[in-house]
Amino acid sequence: MLVNLNDVLKPAQKGKYAVGLFNAVNLELARGIIAAAEQTNSPVIMGTAEVLLPYGPLDEVSYYLVPMAKKAKIPVVVHFDHGLTKDACIKALELGFSSIMYDCSTDSYEDNVAKVKEMADIAHSYGATIEGELGHVGDNEGSAEGSSHLADPSAFYTDPKQAKDFVEKTGIDALAIAVGTAHGAYKLPPKLDFERIETIRKTIDVPLVLHGGSGLADSDFKRAIASGISKVNIFTDINIAAVEAEFKAFTSMDKGIIDLIPAAVEAIKQSVVKKLELFDSVGKAVPQSYDVDKIVAAVIQELLKRQ
C-alpha cells in the first residue's frame, strides 16, 4: 500500500527501529526491494534522487514505483530523495510520489529555511510528506552525488539548537542530519557522532534520517538507531550487489539479459533483507489504519453506544 513518511517513521520512532530507503532506478531494483519487504513483513521506502535521473527519468520511474507501492502487501513510501530544484520536487508530487526531500543544505541557513518552508506547504497540499537536511552530508569520491574533500567534516555537522529552529520554522516531517556519514563507498571507516544524534533526538520531535548508510559497520547502524535514527538511506550496497550477481551469471556470450535479470533481482532482495533485519523493521509492517490504540478506542466507543 502506498503511504507517506509519517505512516512509517512515527511508529519507527516510537518503537526504536529504523525504516530503510532504497533507491530503485530500474524495475529490477524495485522488484528486489518489494520482495524483500514483503518476505520480512517490513515497511519500506523506495524511490530515486535527482542526481540519479540520468539513469531513470522521473516520469518513467514513476510508472512502476507508484503502482508497485499501491499493490504491495506492506506499507511502501515512494520518495524523491535529494531534490535539488523546486521544479523537480513539484513534478515528483504531480507524478504521485508520496514523499519528497528538498535538499537546500548547501544554501545559507536563511535560504534553506525559506525554500524548504515553501516546499513543505506545497508537499502537504498534496497529502505528501517532506524531509529537509540541516548541516551537510559529505560525498565520498566516486559517489553518485559527486565528491567533496573536507579538511574538517565536523564543521558541517548539524547543530542541535539550530535543528530545533529549523524544524519549527519549516514544518518538515523528517530531518536528515550530518553526523559523520557520507554518500557512496567508504575508503576508511567513518566515525559517527552518536552523542550528537542523541542530543538532536532529545531536542526535536520529528524523525531523524541518516544518509550515506552503505558501508557502515553493523554496530554503527545499531548504535545510530538506538541513539535516535528512524530512517536509513541505502543505495551503493544494493547497486553493487546487483552488478556482482550479473557478472557471476554472465558466464559466456550465449547469455542474454533475461538470464541476468533473475540473478540481479535475487541479489538485491537478499541485500535488502539483511538491512531490514539489521534495522529491526522485520514484522513491523502494520498499516497506520491498523493502529491498535485507535482500534481499541473505537471498539470501546461502539460498546458504550450499545449499552
State the strand order across the main sheet: 2-3-4-5-6-8-10-11
Give a count of the beta strands, DSSP E runs of length 2 or more: 11
The share of residues in extended strands comes to 15-25%
Identify low-pLDDT runs: 140-151, 183-188, 288-292
Question: What's the SSE pattern?
Answer: EHEHEHEHEHEEHEEHEHEHHH
Helix content: 40-55%
Q: Round the mean pLDDT to the nearest integer and report it.
A: 88
* Integer tally of domains: 1
Q: Describe the biggest sheet?
A: 8 strands, parallel, barrel
Q: Give me the CATH fold name.
A: TIM Barrel
Name given to the CATH homologous superfamily:
Aldolase class I
The assigned structural class equals: alpha/beta
N-end to C-end Cα span: 37 Å
> Total helix count?
11
The top-level CATH class is: Alpha Beta
CATH architecture assignment name? Alpha-Beta Barrel
The value of Rg in angstroms is 19 Å
Shape annotation: globular
Describe the structure concisely.
This protein has 307 residues and is α/β, with parallel strands linked by helices.
How is this structure best described in words?
By secondary structure, the protein is an alpha/beta fold. It has one domain (2-306): Alpha-Beta Barrel (TIM Barrel), CATH 3.20.20.70. It has helices spanning 5-15, 27-40, 58-71, 86-94, 109-125, 160-170, 194-203, 218-227, 236-249, 257-278, 292-306, and strands spanning 2-3, 19-23, 44-49, 76-83, 99-102, 129-134, 138-139, 174-177, 182-183, 208-210, 229-234. An eight-stranded parallel beta barrel has the order 2-3-4-5-6-8-10-11, surrounded by ten helices. Helix 2 (27-40) packs across helix 10, helix 6 (160-170) crosses helix 7 (194-203) and helix 9 runs antiparallel to helix 10. It is globular, with a radius of gyration of 19 Å. It starts with a strand and ends with a helix.
